[in-house]
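Please decode residue identities from the backbone states below.
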């Protein structure tokens, strides 16, 4: 929790304002019982009406000023807390954006969402409370004790019994509640995970008639969260009853022994009334501190989770001295490249060596799990190679500035990812300053112009989140258009034609060959038809190169390629 306080530095003025204003408001509140005591002991006893009005007027002024100061404290505390939340949320988001896929997969999207929203909100709320209560409560506690003792030191001995009892209650309740707050955040993670999976995979769930199963999974997580929350609230529910009992018994003791001292002429009635008010302030300040002490552990658990993300360093780091090259051809070379996923028994790809040249199409084909997607993701450094080297235009990808390396690459992922917004906004992710004409040209090349023109607003038609209002083939074609508008040196297509029919696939490949004749194209595909015209086909088998050559060469010499071709011909004939 303390490590999070460094983000409060920009708000030093606001914090100082809260402290000063709280000090002023607390001093005025502490002064009110003294004025009241004077009204009773001097004004009422001596029947001095002008004195009563004078002191009463001061009491009204002090109360109004204290209220105004309290409002100002709330304003500045809220401003500081919300500013803190904004800064940490931005820092966390920017930090996560720099993660490689390895860290992203390790922490998980559901947990990252919870940490960026719920956890930061917990810390933000506690900072708001600390600024308002943790400054006011100690001042009121110390000031109340001093003024109570100054009124009657003997009667103040009652606090020697009441305060330790309250402190013991706070300790016992905090001890029980603290571990449960950590559990509650984990239950929130689980709930978010299942909710996210259920919403994203709703088509699959319905298609396989697993609605009841998903309901059961969600209910179990929901009930676990509820049970933990109930347990926490049950413990918290003990705070006020026990504290009220202590407070009421303390007040009874003060009135009892105060009456005895008044009877002995050792104390005045006004002093007893002021003493009662100070005792209430002391006990209320302890309650405020107890509430803060109980809330801080929850924020501490959240802060720990936030820091875990911030302390997770990306495995993909910028080169200390990035190398520059004037060559902009798009030459990609793999030299004995091996990559192993964290915790995997064997490498995903092993000892890969090949060259993809500008103006040529290099195709990667192989069975599921052969390492095709992994191979592509190593080129823009989504993952770091375990051994060997990948170079682009003669420079090792480790020595490139990441932004410059990825500027040269246009990547179409296996799963088409679109964002809520217009068609044009999605295409401009590839090139921010692309004109409408460039967007339409890219859409035409991607064979998507027919369905875009069919929409009322054309390229300014709205796309729902994740392309919910488009078919799989339409999403795939827009993803390809987004890459084509970039006009990059290297194009990576990760099984990007799988949702296209044979006619559209053939038309698209023809256009790519005609218009991208100066770029390097690396295509991952499952269908032989998608790679048949490639200048070089690499056959992968269990992460290793099992063959390399043209379609005709592999058809004559490579057994694995022959099996792939035969299986697809059989499927087509059967169809």
């Amino acid at each position: 929790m303390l490590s999070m306080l460094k983000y409060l530095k920009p708000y030093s003025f606001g914090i100082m304002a809260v402290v000063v204003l709280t000090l002023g408001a607390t001093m005025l509140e502490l002064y009110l019982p003294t004025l009241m005591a004077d009204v009773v002991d001097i004004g009422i006893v001596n029947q001095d009406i002008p004195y009563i009005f004078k002191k009463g007027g001061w009491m009204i002024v002090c109360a109004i000023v204290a209220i105004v100061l309290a409002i100002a404290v709330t304003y500045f505390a809220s401003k500081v807390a919300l500013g803190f939340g904004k800064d940490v949320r931005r820092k966390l988001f920017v930090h996560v954006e720099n993660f490689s896929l390895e860290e992203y997969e390790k922490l998980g999207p559901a947990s990252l969402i919870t940490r960026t929203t719920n956890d930061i909100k917990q810390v933000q709320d506690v900072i708001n409370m600390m600024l308002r209560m943790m400054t006011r409560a100690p001042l009121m506690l110390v000031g109340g004790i001093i003024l109570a003792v100054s009124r009657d030191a003997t009667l103040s001995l009652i606090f020697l019994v009441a305060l330790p009892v309250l402190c013991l209650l706070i300790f016992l309740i905090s001890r029980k509640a603290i571990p449960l707050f950590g559990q509650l955040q984990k239950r929130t993670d689980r709930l978010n995970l299942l909710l996210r999976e259920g919403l994203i995979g709703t088509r699959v769930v319905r298609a396989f008639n697993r609605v009841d199963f998903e309901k059961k999974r969600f209910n179990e997580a929901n009930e676990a969260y509820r049970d933990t929350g109930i347990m926490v609230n049950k413990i918290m529910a003990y705070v006020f009853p026990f504290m009220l009992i202590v407070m009421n018994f303390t007040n009874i003791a003060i009135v009892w022994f105060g009456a005895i001292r008044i009877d002995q002429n050792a104390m005045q009635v006004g002093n007893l009334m002021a003493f009662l008010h100070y005792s209430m302030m002391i006990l209320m300040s302890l309650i405020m501190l107890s509430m803060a002490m109980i809330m801080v552990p929850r924020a501490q658990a959240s802060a720990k989770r936030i820091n875990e993300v911030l302390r997770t360093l990306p495995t993909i780091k910028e080169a200390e001295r990035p190398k520059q090259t004037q060559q902009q051809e798009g030459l990609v070379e793999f030299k004995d490249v091996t990559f192993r996923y964290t915790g995997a028994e064997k490498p995903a790809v092993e000892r890969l060596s090949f060259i993809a040249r500008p103006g040529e199409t290099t195709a990667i084909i192989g069975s599921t799990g052969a390492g095709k997607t992994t191979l592509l993701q190593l080129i823009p450094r989504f993952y770091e190679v375990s051994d060997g080297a990948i170079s682009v235009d003669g420079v090792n990808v480790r020595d490139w500035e990441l932004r410059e390396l990825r500027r040269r690459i246009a990547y179409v992922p296996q799963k088409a990812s679109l964002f809520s917004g217009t068609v044009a906004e999605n295409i401009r992710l590839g090139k921010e300053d692309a004109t409408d004409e460039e967007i339409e040209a890219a859409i035409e090349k991607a064979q998507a112009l027919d369905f875009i023109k069919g929409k009322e607003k054309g390229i300014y038609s709205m796309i729902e989140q994740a392309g919910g209002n488009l078919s799989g083939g339409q999403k795939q074609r827009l993803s390809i258009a987004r890459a084509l508008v970039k006009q990059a040196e290297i194009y990576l297509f990760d099984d990007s034609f799988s949702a296209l029919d044979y006619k559209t696939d053939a038309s698209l490949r023809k256009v790519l060959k005609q218009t991208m004749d100066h770029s390097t194209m690396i295509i991952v595909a499952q269908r032989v038809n998608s790679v048949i015209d490639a200048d070089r086909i690499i056959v992968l088998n269990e992460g290793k190169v099992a063959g390399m050559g043209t379609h005709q060469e592999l058809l004559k010499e490579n057994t694995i390629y022959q099996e792939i071709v035969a299986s697809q011909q059989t499927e087509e004939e059967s169809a």
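Observation: Residues 8-310 form a domain with the ABC transporter transmembrane region fold fold (CATH 1.20.1560.10).
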